[in-house]
Amino acid sequence: MSLMILGTGRYAGNPYYVERFYVNLYSVEELCFMLVDKAELLDQDIMQRDMVRWLDEECDLSDLAHALYALLNQKGSTAAYVGTILEYVCLYPPEVIARTEEIVRDNEGLSPYERHKAKADYLLKERRYFAAMELYQSLLARTPDTEKFLQARILHNLGVACAGMFMYEQAADWFMKSHETDNRQESLLLYLASRRMNRSDKEYIDYIAEHPEYHDASLKVERMVERAAGTFEGSDENRMLVTLQVFKEEGNGVFGNTAPYYNEIERLTAGLKEEYRAYTV
Fold it and tell me: What does the pLDDT read at residue 109?
């Protein structure tokens, strides 16, 4: 038997839209979940009078709203703002609330560049690749040359975003720029992996032969590719395709019915297309 959780306030007739996270909130419990789940990404932008007004008018939480208005007027910290909401609602145990406040408090010490990167990192994690790239490129243009480590991380993640959209040529360029900035091994490996994905076997082998300095790294890439191939071979999609291939071959010789094979191919392809569209929103 599942436990019933009593709500605080009322369910909002009009949602509160949190632009950064692309989410509509209909209750203070949903707000609490977002604050805990996205604690690493919270900053002063979350402290909005519109949110407090929504809690007051839509969720009927005037006591909480008055406390938050006081914090805003006193220019209180983001950690205090988040903690006030979580403690009022009591959806989470004290240790979770304390840990969330600690995370938010630590993030308040980040530089403006690091906070901006955190927003782009969230979009990248959510596979919103175009939006992430726009933020990364905007940040890269404003990051001073003294921030070499940060520049390298931005360049690397631009490569990740391109690879996520199957733009392997562009991904390779970003990964190499990242590697040249801080000489990190991970960026070099992904540079070689991107080149491998965008070249025939012969072209890639010829490239490695022309660059003996990449020989050891290329061996690591091959091991990465083998592990990735093994993961796909064990996936449900691949097992289904293998099974259907058997039916197709037997159908041609016995039943003359290849429709299930091509129907499943169409279904899997449609799923991949939908997933790709979601990446590029």
Answer: 74
CA nearest to 166, candidates 186, 203, 193:
193
Task: State the pLDDT at residue 253.
Answer: 40
- Can you give the pLDDT at residue 127? 86
Say what angle helices 185-197 and 168-182 make with each other, to 10 degrees. 160
Spatial contact of 126 and 110, defined as CB atoms under 8 Å apart:
no
Give the length of the chain. Answer: 281
Do both 89 and 133 map to the same domain? Answer: no
The span from the CA of 262 to the CA of 256, in Å, is 13
Tell me, yes or no, whether 157 and 198 share the same domain.
yes
Q: What is the mean pLDDT of each run of 10 residues along the chain (281 residues)?
A: 61 92 93 92 91 96 96 94 96 93 85 83 86 92 90 94 91 94 92 89 90 91 78 59 54 47 60 51 39
Angle at 46 between CA 44 and CA 49, to 5 degrees: 100
Q: Are residues 157 and 90 in the same domain?
A: no
CB-based contacts of 21-30 (< 8 A; 24+ apart in sequence): 21/122, 27/59, 28/55, 28/59, 28/61, 28/64, 28/85, 28/89, 29/5, 29/89, 29/91
CA 50 – CA 71 distance, rounded (Å)? 14
CA dist., res. 206 & res. 200, Å (int):
10
Q: Does residue 116 sit in the same domain as residue 194?
A: yes
| Domain ranges, residue 146 | 112-232
Write out the two tokens for 118. Answer: 């955190």
Give a yes or no: residue 7 inside a domain: no
Number of domains within the chain:
3
User: What is the three-class DSSP state of 102?
Assistant: helix
CATH code of the domain containing 157: 1.25.40.10
pTM of the predicted protein model: 0.61
> Could you tell me if 22 and 96 lie in one domain?
yes
